[in-house]
Write a structure and sequence with these properties.
With about 475 residues, the protein is mainly alpha-helical. Helices cover about 70% and strands about 0% of the residues. The protein contains 24 helices and no strands. α11 packs antiparallel against α14 and α19 packs parallel to α23. It starts with a helix and ends with a helix.
Length: about 475
């Protein structure tokens, strides 16, 4: 099974050997892996590249910009994964051939979906270990969604405009992308490694110089970009300082298992929130790169001010303060969730069942993340929690007694504290399976806390319908039915 380190062996020859030794020494001093340091360095490298793009290339010819994005992205891939960058290059070439040879057909969409997902899953199978490794499959999962979305948008571009939804018309590709254009779209340095997702049409606007708040000039996006960078650095510092003390390895120790139940639950709560900070850091830093280039431009708000959130993967305030699981979902990995909603969930409308469509979308997300059982368990818990949370919210809304109690100002801080505790405790419970991967590890932790998450939400799933019968007046039920 190959690792990122093995994949980078070819890159260490010659002059690169000194660089690698330097990275090894720095990584050892920081207590991080060389692969992680390469990843962070590559993400921050987006800023000088974005400045170069702004000052010298912003209104250059399209072919030159595609070439710049493709070559810089390939260089980043080579720096991180050595000669294993060929995996992404092969899939980009294959996708171009599918578009050209199969055209705007259902066959092209299905072939793309099956081929790109099969390649990704095969990569997971052959490179998987029992721990989190930074290897070529990490950016490849981002690329896989890009290629599938490209095929679907290209297919929609051949349909009658009136048969498309407003959203589909927005993303439908009218022209025929060139190989260089597809490569530039795939390897754009601000999003190649960890996202965010964006459409080919949005990328075309960037290349055409349309993503600016002042037509004919580079965008006034330096301050918004620095704000996201600064926020990302705050999360990076917090994560770096606390990571030696809050680890998922501790969850598997005898010391953790010997602690009182309340301690195990509190540690799970704190760890569950903290473990997400590494993702928050990467997404905020890369969002800053996208904003700096103009890719983050999202038009003008009602107040006439430019908005720069087109590539936002985080709503930080909502993430930190919203007490509901659906709030965390809405504020975390936004563009990936939007991609799944646009290209998967809504395309399953023919099933006529939202819950089934949601379950299938979560199953797709689990497989997209990897083949470990922990991913399936995590997204199964997400589905269960969201269903129960929706039922509970409807019960409180429809019950005069509960809605009246919930609106008492003096009790709202207490309710908020209780809700946040439940929220982060069971988010940590779900993330345990996501981060520990294999069934023997996450099962050990679940046993140590007596499967508290499953017991709590499955119990509510059974109890809430009876509570609704008792607490919701009949006239309210009839009104809802009408």
């Amino acid at each position: 099974m190959a690792s990122a380190a093995e994949g980078g062996a070819g890159a260490a020859a010659g002059p690169a050997a000194g660089l690698r030794l330097g990275l090894d020494a720095l990584a050892a001093a920081l207590g991080a892996s060389e692969q992680a340091l390469r990843l962070i360095a590559s993400i921050f490298l987006g800023y000088p590249l974005a400045l170069l793009y702004r000052h010298y290339l912003f209104y250059s010819d399209s072919y030159l910009l595609h070439l710049f994005h493709a070559l810089t992205g390939l260089a980043i891939a080579y720096f991180n994964f050595g000669y294993q960058f060929y995996h992404s290059l092969l899939c980009v070439l294959l996708q171009f051939l599918i578009l050209r040879l199969m055209g705007r057909t259902v066959t092209a969409v299905l072939t793309t979906f099956c081929t790109q997902m099969a390649y990704l899953l095969a990569g997971y199978y052959y490179t998987a270990t029992g721990t989190y490794d930074i290897k070529w499959t990490m950016p490849h999962c981002v690329l896989t969604l890009k290629m599938i979305g490209l095929a679907i948008d290209y297919f929609d571009g051949g349909k009658d405009q009136n048969s498309l939804t407003p959203e589909q018309r927005k993303y439908a590709i009218r022209g025929v992308p060139s190989l260089l254009e597809v490569a530039g779209f795939a390897y754009f340095y601000g999003a190649f490694l960890v996202g965010p997702q964006f459409s080919m049409n949005h990328y075309r606007k960037l290349v055409q110089g349309q993503l600016t708040d002042e037509p004919g000039k580079v965008p006034n996006s330096t301050i918004p970009a620095l704000k996201r960078l600064s926020l990302g650095l705050v999360y990076l510092v917090v994560y770096t300082l606390l990571s030696p003390y809050i680890t998922h390895d501790y969850l598997l120790t005898d010391d953790y298992e010997s602690r009182p139940l309340w301690f195990r639950c509190v540690y799970l709560l704190v760890w569950g929130k903290f473990v997400l900070y590494k993702y928050v850091t990467c997404w905020l830093v890369t969002e800053g790169v996208c904003i700096l280039t103009g890719l983050g431009f999202n038009g003008f708000g009602e107040d006439g001010r430019a908005e720069w959130d087109a590539c936002a993967n985080m709503k930080v305030w909502m993430f930190e303060t919203n007490p509901r699981f659906t709030g965390t979902i809405a504020s975390f990995n936004i563009n990936t969730n939007a991609w799944v909603a646009r290209y998967f969930f809504k395309r399953l409308k023919f099933l006529g069942n939202k819950e089934l469509s949601q379950a299938l979308a979560l199953l797709f997300l689990a497989l997209w993340h990897g083949l470990h059982s922990g991913y399936l368990m995590c997204f199964q818990m997400e589905f269960l929690i969201v269903v129960v949370e929706k039922q509970a919210a409807n019960l409180i809304r429809d019950s005069p007694a509960l809605s009246g109690l919930a609106s008492v100002p003096a009790l709202q801080p207490l309710f908020y504290l209780v809700q946040q505790t439940i929220h982060w405790l069971f988010l940590g419970y779900s993330m345990t399976a996501f981060c520990l991967f294999t069934w023997d590890k996450w099962l050990k932790v679940y046993r140590s806390v007596y499967f508290i998450g499953h017991v709590f939400f499955l119990s509510l799933l059974l109890i809430l319908p009876y509570m609704r019968r008792a607490l919701v007046p009949r006239k309210e039920k009839l009104k809802r039915m009408e």
